[in-house]
User: Which sequence fits this backbone?
């Protein structure tokens, strides 16, 4: 996943023609879906982008951005003028495509699977309700493995920091695929 985040930073840097690097990525596997306390506390309205993972391995990814992070991304793309709400939402969906595709591609290559992400959807969720939102979105996709929470830090131009949080819910089959892959390597 970290390699995927590094590739996402590189892709986004090319997209906005500015330097972006991955400063930190903390990855936690939670054993129960009610342990979302690993998501750091945010306030206000959050943008949650959901991508269905399809192919030989199914699942769902959730990219969670605060208003401040969404605004930093908008400023990075358009430093001289404010983007309309519609353009900002389209930009967030493109950012989700970049991050999800990079991580999914790295996972697919590492495990030699054919998987890819579908078109993301965007919901705005009050920060106080994010844990319940995730519980509901995960509960409607049964037979899945425990959730992986990723807290990342991307640095733009050596000064601005964006700290998106990602939650990945993957099919239980991934454990078998990883074991199989490790025994053949």
Assistant:
């Amino acid at each position: 996943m970290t390699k995927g985040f590094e590739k996402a930073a590189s892709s986004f840097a090319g997209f906005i023609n500015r330097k972006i690097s991955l400063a930190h990525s903390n990855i936690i596997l939670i054993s129960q879906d009610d342990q979302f306390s690993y998501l750091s506390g945010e306030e206000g309205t959050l943008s949650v982008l959901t991508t269905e993972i399809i192919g030989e391995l199914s699942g769902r990814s959730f990219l969670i951005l605060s208003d401040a992070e969404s605004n930093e991304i908008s400023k990075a793309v358009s430093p001289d003028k404010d983007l309309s709400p519609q353009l900002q939402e389209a930009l967030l969906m493109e950012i989700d495509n970049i991050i999800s595709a990079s991580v999914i591609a790295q996972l697919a290559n590492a495990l030699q699977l054919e998987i890819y992400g579908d078109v993301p959807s965007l919901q705005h969720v009050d920060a106080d309700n994010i844990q319940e939102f995730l519980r509901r979105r995960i509960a409607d996709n049964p037979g899945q493995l425990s959730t992986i929470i990723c807290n990342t830090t991307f640095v733009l131009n050596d000064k601005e920091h964006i700290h998106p949080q990602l939650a990945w819910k993957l099919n239980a089959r991934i454990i078998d695929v990883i074991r199989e892959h490790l025994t053949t390597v």
Observations:
- Strands lie at 20-29, 45-55, 59-66, 115-117, 121-126, 144-156, 160-162, 165-171.
- The chain has a mean pLDDT of 79.
- DSSP finds five helices and eight strands in the chain.
- Helices lie at 2-16, 67-77, 85-111, 130-139, 173-184.
